[in-house]
Structures are given as C-alpha cells and as structure tokens.
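Protein modeling request. Please complete all fields; requests missing the sequence field cannot be processed.
Requester role: graduate student
Desired output: 3D structure, token encoding
Chains: 1
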Amino acid sequence: MGKKGILLVVSGFSGAGKGTLMRELLRQHENYALSISATTRAPREGEAEGREYFFKTREEFEGMIAREELIEYACYVGNYYGTPKAYVEEQLERGRDVVLEIEIQGARKVKERFPDTVLLFVSPPSAQELRRRLTDRGTEKPEIIESRLARAVEEAKGIEDYDYFVINDDLNACVEHVHQIVECERSRTCRGAERIEAIREDLKAFSK
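Delivered output (208 residues):
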C-alpha cells in the first residue's frame, strides 16, 4: 500500500495572506493539492468558479449539508463556507498532501473527524500590519474591514488549538517553513505504522 497523504488545515486572520501562501506552496511543491471550498459569498473580482471557490446559493449549500457532502462547514461574516468531502478523500488516498484553507470553527471540526490532521495558523507580524493589508486590498467597505478585525480578536483566543503558529512576513521563507513542517510530520511514528511493523518483522530473522 502506498503512503497516504497528509491533511493540512491552514487558518489565520483575514488579511494574513493565506491564499497567496497556499498558491505559492502549490507552485513550488508538486505533491500538494488545494481543497476548494464551497461558499455562499459573492465572488471577488478575478475569482472564478471551481478555482478559488465553488460559489453556491444558500439553498444549494444547505442541500449539501443535508446530503452530508461536506467534511465541515461554518458561517463566517454572514456566509457559509464548507469543505466538499469526496475530493479530499480521493487525493489523500492517492498520496497527495491536501491543504484546506478554512477558518477556526471548521478547523476544529476537521480535527475531530480526522485526528491526525495538521493544524496551522498563519498571522502577519503585527496587528497594525493586519489592518494595513485589509485596507490595501481595496475589495471591501470600511464596515466589513472592521468586522474582520473584530473577528480577529475572537480568533486569536483559539490559536492554542493549532499545532503550529506561522508568521507570514517574508513569503518565500514562510512557504519553506510550512513545507518543512509537513515533511517533519511525515516522519512521525504514528504515520509510519506499516513501515515500522515491516521492519520489526524483518528483524525477527536476527533473533533466531
């Protein structure tokens, strides 16, 4: 049996640069697969259906919930976000490392369902930098920016639920840091049960 992929959940404050970080991780390292979330929020300029998100109406999304087609889902700033199940499971079985970019409520649900999931929280180097990035993005009204900052105050209370805390200051350095985290996780004994047992069996020949 081939190795199973690692499920990596990436969360962080809105404006932390999670999307840019994940796109660069996939560009530099070919074994990653980005899980595309479903959402009821409207597309931003430049976003495409099936690339950044699967854009759904509220009725469509609630149908997916009813049919249990989502690993997790949550409501964030008035919109649903969720992770389709079939794609994730297929990629993991093929040995690819699957990246889920989701918020903190969803991350907790994934960890409950898949305990060996690696949870990673991304943050800018300071709160001031977070506000600057949200403002410079220029895609949202001031009241939405304020709601995202207020949400960040609450999200910060749950950072200790994550396995790793990563500062996204220098993009390339952050990409390499995340990749090394995944590579180290691959060597954990809990992920190598079959190989460990095979070596134990082979070693028995030396005890005769």
